[in-house]
Fold each of these.
Amino acid sequence: MAPNDSQRSSGVLPRSVRFLVIGAGVHGLSTAWHLARSLKARGEGGGDDVLIVDKTGVAAGASGIACGVVRNNYFQPAMSELMAECVRIWEDHAEDLHYHGAGYVALGPPAQERDLVDVYERQQRINYRSELHLGEDAVAAHMRGLFPDWRAPGLTVCLHEHQGGFDYNKASMRGLAVKAKAEGVSLLEGVAVTGFEHDASGTVVKVATDHGEVQVEQVVVAVGPWIKQLWEMLDLPQRLDVHTRAGEVVQDQEMWTYWYLQEGEVGVDPARFETAGGALPPVLHVDSDAPLHDDAGRLITDQTWGIYFKRDRHGVQGGASPVRQGHEFQIDPYPTSTVSEDFSDLWAAGLSHCMARFEGARSSFREVRSGGVGAFTVDNFPVFDYMCPNVFVAADSNHGYKLIAVGREIARVLLGEHSSLLYPFRYKRFATGDLHPVSNSPYPWS
């Protein structure tokens, strides 16, 4: 059922394929790469059995404009265990995937101490390298050891992950595509899926595209924020009842909610953001309940606020809390600007609040094509599961870019194995009440 060589080289959609992967972002590319490798190792063929289609191209969607942060700051045990495996893949293929293991630092006020202590203790149990600092004086001392001009008050907990870091999104995805193609995976860009044909059992037997139909054995849907459209094509429920951990039932909930992801950049010399020893700085994430003022003393907010930032090729990049857009969103064309009017003021003020070196950064703010829009599930955590007998859905709920190991686990499931890492993200959890615990973070993905 594999496409022949002429079909692969000419970009012609084959009549049939064993595994069809829809979407050339992180989940689609990682799944295809790991699947082809596993098939070869089993002596069951190889990449010739795997085809990726994308309606635009590699990294054309969310994976191409993500901030690229890789971290394991998760209160939820299942997320933490999955992320440890993801970080291992980033580390093992750092050069090919343009990954920088600079680390990740999360800082918070007293309200977040218990959460970060729990995260730290879990990281120690799974041998994930990190250190914890408690108390305002200890936190300030640690941060000033990294950055002598550190000045953020009121932070009483610091979790410094010595693993994790960041990568350059488009370069990483191109590198992942190269690795998949090296295993023989076929990739057709500019091919949009338009529908699915089911048999009496609900199994998908054909996938319709704007380039014709293809018979399939198994399908992987990995389309990021376009998931709602594919969900509709598969006739899956748009609303559902959610059984909570406490045994309550929240009725008639929307499956999908869209959020604008607010990110931007200040165009300063990247070398201006380095550690006291001249090293590449870790990614920083600050949640604070201290009043936030801009450099002129104007109050920006007296509510809890949060920002994250890292060094980038052209300056300092990062973001703040997302903005809810509701259950309907016109996702094509994919948005190129997603920040609210006050985001630049808050984010630049937050940078200056943390470090003296960023005073005046507001004048260098640039609204860049980053962030995009995310499609969040009803509980804001991923769904990784078979949604039809032969259709596996990777709906990442905007956790996606860093979760590169999900593709490896999907490949295992497609080949008949069980994935203990993906099991907690099964769709059935909404009916059983086996939901993920909720942290005190202001971010919906945490």
Amino acid sequence: MNQLLDRGSPTEPARFTAKQGQYLAFIWAYSQINRRAPAEADFERYFKVTAPSVHQMLKTLNQQGLIDKQPGVARSIQLRVAPQELPILGLDQPVIITASGH
């Protein structure tokens, strides 16, 4: 059916958490748009988190073999996950709806 929605059986163990999936999806999307990997500051702005949070997440993703990153080299992140395994970017982000003029 739809390859984006039909990603395998529900009994398959998850390779990454929902939050990790969002970081991985961000790396892929950013790299597709900008033709280079995101900097840690790009993650901070998008996810509205602190620098230590971003650094720890990237360290964890690297340790789990989900990304490759060269220490001390800017924008050196490389995905080790196939794009079809990634969640839709922003799907787990909170949606804030405001009613103006009421």
Amino acid sequence: MFDYILLFVVALSAVMAVIQENLYKSIIILGFESFSLAAIYHFLLATDVAATQAILGAALIPGLFIVALYKTTKGRDE
């Protein structure tokens, strides 16, 4: 049952990340979606894939997206 809840959270987070107008919020939601996907991998006993998804998908990639977004929109706000 918990697997289905996580699957619903992954699908809902993906849709929410796409329809979000604020790009920073979209990146945070994308990180949450990746963390939920890592939890699904963990429950399916694919611990190496879960660890990789948690490190890259939930931490590193959103961090890089935030830095890139900050650097590309820095001069536009003034």
